[in-house]
Amino acid sequence: MGELLSAVTSDVQTLFRQEVELAKTEVKQEATKAGKAAGMYGGAGFAGYMVLLFLSLAAVLGLANVMDGGWAALIVTVVWAVIAAVLYQRGRTQMRTVAPKPEQTVETMKENAQWARHPTR
Fold it and tell me: Given 60, 69, 71, 82, which residue has the most CB atoms within 10 angstroms?
């Protein structure tokens, strides 16, 4: 009986180790894919920035056809300042709604601890 229990324990340990290794491999593969996707998002963000930069330059040059170039640049700058202020305010408002503590997970962990102390309740 002791040998059988020892063999079962050994097999369970081996199975557990293999499952952990499989999980590590899967996580590593997913992290690699996520890293590549993040890099592409970064590239897209930079490309979008360049589009806005050149679009702003085109707006300045377009306005410079009907007014002084300095005023045209100032108008485009003020438009971007207003956009930045609106985005900042919206981001600040949204950030105030973020809860740093995962309330649902904490509640679930409390329930699990309660059940572990008194599994028949």
Answer: 60
**Cα–Cα dist 51/110, whole Å:** 51
DSSP 96-114: TT--SS-HHHHHHHHHHHH
Which strand (E) or helix (H) includes residue 118?
Answer: none
pLDDT at 120: 64
Tell me the backbone φ, ψ of residue 46, rounded to 5 degrees: -65, -40
pTM over 0.70: no
Instruction: Name every residue whose Cβ is closer than 8 Å to that of residue 121 and which is 6 or more positions away in sequence.
Output: 114, 115
Mean pLDDT calculated for residue range 50-56: 96
Give dist(CA 101, CA 98) in Å, integer: 9
